[in-house]
Amino acid sequence: xSPRTWRLLFWLGLLLGAVLALGLLRGILMPFATGFAIAxxxxxxxxxxxxxxxxxxxxxxxxxxxxxxxxxxxxxILVPVIQGxxxxxxxxxxGFVQTVQKDLGHLIQLLQRHLPAEEAGKLRDVVGxxxxxxxxxxxxIVQSMITSSFAILNIISLVIITPIVTFFLLRDxxxxxxxxxxxxxxxxxxxxxxxxxxxxxxxxxxVHGQALVCVILAVYYAIALTAARLSDGLALGVLIxxxxxxxxxxxxxxxxxxxxxxxxxxxxxxxIIIVAGIFAFGQAIExxxxxxxxxxxxxxxxxxxxxxxLFAGGTLFGFVGVLVAxxxxxxxxxxxxxxxxxxxxxxLYDAPAxxxxxxxxxxxxx
Length: 366
What we know:
Elements: H1 3-24, H2 30-51, H3 56-114, H4 117-147, H5 149-171, H6 173-182, H7 189-227, H8 233-243, H9 249-265, H10 269-299, H11 303-344
Helix pairs in contact: 2-3, 2-5, 2-11, 3-5, 3-8, 3-9, 7-8, 7-10, 7-11, 8-9, 9-10, 10-11
């Protein structure tokens, strides 16, 4: 085999081994993946303090403490409000169920007047069975979230291990980069460094763009939900902005919470439809303007690929996969574009004819 073939097999084997290791260890990845993500975001601030003469370890500790204080402040504001809303939601469930039952009763009576008795009875049985299945499924999810020892262990490890991992990564960031650079193959050094810079620029663009989207969504939903007279709409808007760190999933979770709170607070369909309209308008603006302009142009990913990445990451690695799906897809996009450029410059893409010239009757697709 040629040296180029050996290098290709080496990198493919290394990639396959990394994917296999991540799959085997996905149950413990959350605090480490989260710590790496936080360290990547905070590293420029630490580097700036270090340039100002602050010791690297002290700068890492100071930046991390400020970040944790900011996160704690957000939680102190949001958790009591959301807790109160959940209590209110639970208290309002019986009344909302009665309203739904009343509306369904009117609908069934209307159908009974236009359908044969046998068909109306089948419809009533099917609707009742589906509602029971939905309630059982929802109750099972809530119970598993509350009682799952693995979920509790993940939360504990996230709270305790993540700050420790983040600090060590921040403190030793330059040293780790230097070690990795020193072990890169010398014949491909310039290529690897160039692609690493593209990957870094792409990730920075994603972080900045997603942060802007989160802020804009938080302001919009806070103002709109408050104007719709939803209790604590301001806090709920901030929560939606925080959850929007994960594209699509954040707004979807916020939509479910807002509809549930509106149902428990109002108990009528008109106000619920208004809240749903607020989210429909916000999602239209986000999907057609904010995400394409602030994120899509920076990471060069089509929205369909973003959705696919979220589902694929969640299927393969659970919540951690969802958290890192879009950045990972952006990195894969950079590497795929590099591989495509190499392919187009190779003989596989444009092999010459036997006489050394391209036949005139061959149409090239450029």
